[in-house]
Amino acid sequence: MIKVNHLKKSFGKNEVLKDINEEFSQGEVVVVIGPSGSGKSTFLRCLNLLEEPSDGEIVFEGTTLTGLNEKDLNQLRQKMGMVFQQFNLFPHKTAKQNLTIAPVKSKGVDKHQADQTAVKLLRQVGLGDKEDAYPASLSGGQQQRVAIARALAMDPDVMLFDEPTSALDPEMVGEVLKVMKDLAQSGMTMVVVTHEMGFAREVADRVLFMDDGYIVESGTPDMIFSNPQNERTQDFLSKVL
Ligand code: ADP
Ligand code: MG
């Protein structure tokens, strides 16, 4: 579904991604772990060209994204949902309106149909009773579930998550991870940057360990957590587990 060839990204003289080669298959759930500053967010943002790679290519569903014109790129981006640490909901729109704006405006979905989909998705994330609530009246966990539902409202083929639970109070982490786990079990292709090692162990098909701009190690959760081969992976895990 996504192929990454010799991806490099620098900010000025700071070479943040050094030579990334990776593939994500349809239906695969991949968790990306690694120390702060290792390039995880930059990698994720390069997948949908929120960051423009300095070199290399991203191929999504057979189309090379790097070098595409803005119009074609935006079309393909709609197939890649993204959820951030900060939920970034539209504050003056209700939960339901947050889900219908983009499908109606940028995909031309019929308003009535967008409403129906929104209600269905809010139920799916356990917020069927919050259609008309404004973000400020929702807890952090609820807001993040609305943000996930909003990304799903565009009917994406892949969902990218960048530390979706890092800004949450601890008691709200579980409800968001539960929604993500259900999504994984429904067959969604997912790339998830997280420090939630329990989620990685339980839900990931594959875990990538990033350090200093490289994917240092990749394997099943069991391989990475129980028998890491690389010294840097071992060192990182000894600090977080
Ligand atoms: P991680 O998500 O693993 O913590 P990031 O991808 O956010 O790592 O950051 C990796 C490096 O890239 C850091 O040194 C960071 O300062 C730098 N960086 C990230 N985004 C930018 C940016 N927009 N401009 C300049 N430097 C950036
Ligand atoms: Mg990050």
Automatic annotation (TrEMBL):
CDD domains: ABC_HisP_GlnQ. PROSITE patterns: ABC_TRANSPORTER_1, ABC_TRANSPORTER_2. GO terms for molecular function: ABC-type amino acid transporter activity; ATP binding; ATP hydrolysis activity. Keywords: Amino-acid transport, ATP-binding, Cell membrane, Membrane, Nucleotide-binding, Transport. It comes from the Bacteria. GO terms for cellular component: plasma membrane. It is a peripheral membrane protein. The keyword S-adenosyl-L-methionine does not apply. Residues 2-237 form the ABC transporter domain. Its main location: membrane. Signal peptide: none annotated. InterPro entries: AAA+_ATPase, ABC_ATPase_HisP-typ, ABC_transporter-like_ATP-bd, ABC_transporter-like_CS, MetN_ABC_transporter-like, P-loop_NTPase. The keyword Ribonucleoprotein does not apply. It is found in: Cell membrane. PANTHER family: AMINO ACID IMPORT ATP-BINDING PROTEIN, GLUTAMATE_ASPARTATE IMPORT ATP-BINDING PROTEIN GLTL. Belongs to the ABC transporter superfamily. This is Polar amino acid transport system ATP-binding protein. The lineage of its organism: Bacteria, Bacillati, Bacillota, Bacilli, Lactobacillales.
